[in-house]
Amino acid sequence: MTGRSGVRQVCTGVVLGVALTLVGVVGVPGVGWAVGGGSVGGGSAGGAPAGGDASPRGAARAWPVGGPGGLLGRFEPPAKPWAAGHRGVDLAAVPGAEVRAAAAGVITFSGLVAGRPVVTVAHPGSGSPPLRTTYLPVTGTLPVGTTVAAGQVIGRLAPDGRHCGAGDCLHWGLLRGGRYLDPLALLGAGRARLLPLGGGGAGV
Known about the structure:
mainly beta, eight-stranded antiparallel sheet, three-stranded antiparallel sheet, 1 helix, disordered C terminus
């Protein structure tokens, strides 16, 4: 990326990333989350050890679209919250494709963020603050407050053509509070440091 278009894309990404940290931050109790006795990226709830196993043992998980063969871009965390980076992963998809919840949770947001349609799913029982996954550009098909299962359709990919060059893709994010994590850790394929049960420190 060079010139004005490159600078514009970086600035847009930073603004969108900051905006997403403000979306769907409130968890909804009553939906179970089992992640091998721990949690992704630190935090705890119900006695779960901080920084526990981020692998999918004991809990259902699903690729939002396609599968591992459709991975176009990996998670590249920014050095600073306001710096450039890739705050999620990109998965190959075409406009109109069904987008599924990566794990069980509750839809806490469905609407526009920085001009793009976004769906946010909070995952109660995943620590404090609870994890939440974001999906964009996705036009939601379920109202806020709906409880969803892993693999349940939550929306359809909207045409965008801005994030993945001239093509379309799903940008899938994972956050705990204002901290971005690698969503592939939910599937046991992320750039995460997996700790034994009872281990301390950050898990991602």
